[in-house]
Amino acid sequence: MTTFDKKLQQCRNDIDEIDQQLVNLLAKRREVTCRVGELKSQVGMPIFAPDRENQLLAKLAKQAQAVGLSVPLVEDVFRRIMRDSYSSQDEQGYQCINPDAGKVVVIGGQGQLGQVFVDLFTRTGYQVSILEKDDWQNADSIFANAGLVIVAVPINLTELVISKLSNLPIDCILADITSIKAKPLRAMMAVHRGPVVGLHPMFGPDVTGLIKQTIIVCHGEQLDKYQWLLDQFTVWGALNYVVSAKEHDEAMAMVQVMRHFSTVSYGYHLMQEDVELEQLLAMSSPIYRLELAMVGRLFAQDPNLYADIIFSNPDNVVMMKRFANRFVELLSSVEQGNKSDFIAKFKQVADWFGDDAQNFLLESTSLLEKAREHK
């Protein structure tokens, strides 16, 4: 072994020893965060504490600067560590905000998103029952003593299911978790005289907890009767965002309908062009690889879900046509070689985004760093 090889091996041995120390410290840290989770669950304190997280990251940034370490590196490492900390706290369970709530019934509880709520309510200590399409003959017994009924069925079935719920206990909370809100909310208030609330979880069925997840809340009737439910979401780590049903549906035309339709259209175009995906990936920049991953992710899921969202409201067609017209408008500038017009429109959009454009640039840079790690 040469002198170089010996020195290199010694360096590697030192690194291995330090790595082992880091692993041991991470294990000790997780033990402490588990104790934190136990304490929080006893008093109903939310797992996610944004002020504490921001203070910790600011302190670590100063410590990193003091010893000459990259601040983005330290922030990235500790954000990942904190994600695991939240997970360890999640494993300790949660305080049941309303032990006297009665039975929680999830209609469609065997569906992907329904299972998320069944799991959370069960782990929190609530009595949970599930009603599926073959259980309606036993509906009266299932709904007996129900304190909360959640409709978690596909969009095209939501109003039909709601129409069957006229005999719920008067104090029972009726909620839906559909991605449109105005029509289901009206249907629930028409059929049930008790507390009603419209909910839209802004996450998919692959989540194991609600830490840092958003649940949109559209108030219906008797907020004071379902406030405990919103408080339970907060204890689970979710962020409740309150908005009217009308505002929700208008926003979802952009957040979901336009995005999903554009993604389906682009995937359909790639298929019709019969491109070689492996070649595209081999020659792609990190940002295109990430974009392509998001396109592929959609096509790995249930097409009925996306069809239901896109077809849920006839007004969506009008919005998509406006999008198509603006696409053609920009294409005309390219076709005519009118680069100045294209740049002018680009600048108009940049001005409209304002400071958010720079913020999105920084945020996406962090995502691209992670994408490069998986290449």
From TrEMBL:
Q: Does the keyword Manganese apply?
A: no
| Membrane found in the keyword field | no
Check the record and name the SMART domains matching this protein.
CM_2 (SM00830)
Which parts of the sequence belong to the Prephenate/arogenate dehydrogenase domain? 102-364
Entry GO MF terms: chorismate mutase activity; prephenate dehydrogenase (NAD+) activity
InterPro entries xref list: 6-PGluconate_DH-like_C_sf, Chor_mut/prephenate_DH_T, Chorismate_II_sf, CM_dom_sf, CM_II_prokaryot, NAD(P)-bd_dom_sf, PDH_C, PDH_N
The residues covered by the Chorismate mutase domain are: 2-93
Subcellular location per UniProt equals:
Cytoplasm
- Quote the Pfam families the UniProt record gives: CM_2, PDH_C, PDH_N
Chief subcellular location equals: cytoplasm
Query: Source organism's superkingdom?
Result: Bacteria
PROSITE patterns given in the database record:
CHORISMATE_MUT_2, PDH_ADH
> What are the alphabetically sorted keywords of the record?
Amino-acid biosynthesis, Aromatic amino acid biosynthesis, Cytoplasm, Isomerase, NAD, Oxidoreductase, Tyrosine biosynthesis
Q: In which pathway does it act?
A: Amino-acid biosynthesis; L-tyrosine biosynthesis; (4-hydroxyphenyl)pyruvate from prephenate (NAD(+) route): step 1/1; Metabolic intermediate biosynthesis; prephenate biosynthesis; prephenate from chorismate: step 1/1
Q: What is this protein called?
A: T-protein
- Encoding gene, per UniProt annotation: tyrA
